[in-house]
């Protein structure tokens, strides 16, 4: 009798003590890395307490806001024709850089006590190297500073660069007093004081471990020796010529060559004499 009396009281308490299983949503891979134009699988797995037909939504989170990927049983226009749904998992085909970003899978179970669960994952779209642009001078003078540049601005992640001279890799120098330096991240090969021995055919290779490495077209750099004695002799000769010309002009000026009128077409010609005696003589003659 006592058990029968306490049973209606104990039963609700026992029911309340039973743990409630909420909607659980998970993913097998929180970071998905795929090459551009390939296939990407965005995993989403869920368990519900009672609801056997929960509502599934996919959203993409961007700086400008959140946009729908999958909503109300269909894909958004941007994903139509290249996306498919299996359970709650989405497979994207021919992914591009526009697909890169953070995604959220949401599962809503209206019949459950805990009605909403979600998981977040990131899609990284990788771009293999493109043919890098290279700046290789055709000529240089010994002792001058020369920089060779290599850049691929499209690869994701950013590429590392390797320079080659006559098809042999140019590795970073091991000692500090080397005449050159090379930066694999920026792609700049710098000769601090170039020598004739640095002449050769140079090309650069870009590699980011996505796809095959790509190289630019090589160019031959010729290092010419600076003719210091010839330059000094030319300067001395030029100074001698200027000095002789200056002395000649000064001598001519002192001798008065610039003040004489030679070869004038009116030489010996002057105006008629205005002597008064000549005038009187002329008058008497006329009388």
TrEMBL record:
Q: Where is the signal peptide?
A: 1-22
Q: Which residues cross the membrane?
A: 231-252
Keyword Membrane applies: yes
Query: Which terms under GO biological process does the entry name?
Result: leukocyte cell-cell adhesion
Cellular component, GO annotation: cell surface; plasma membrane; protein complex involved in cell adhesion; tight junction
Question: Which key words are in the record?
Answer: Membrane, Signal, Transmembrane, Transmembrane helix
Q: InterPro entries, alphabetically?
A: Ig-like_dom, Ig-like_dom_sf, Ig-like_fold, Ig_sub, Ig_sub2, Ig_V-set, JAM2
Domain of life according to the entry: Eukaryota
For whether the record's keyword set contains Signal, the answer is yes
Ig-like domain residues are 22-122, 129-224
Against PROSITE patterns, the record matches this protein to:
IG_LIKE
What is this protein's name?
Answer: Junctional adhesion molecule 2A isoform X2
* Gene behind this protein: Jam2
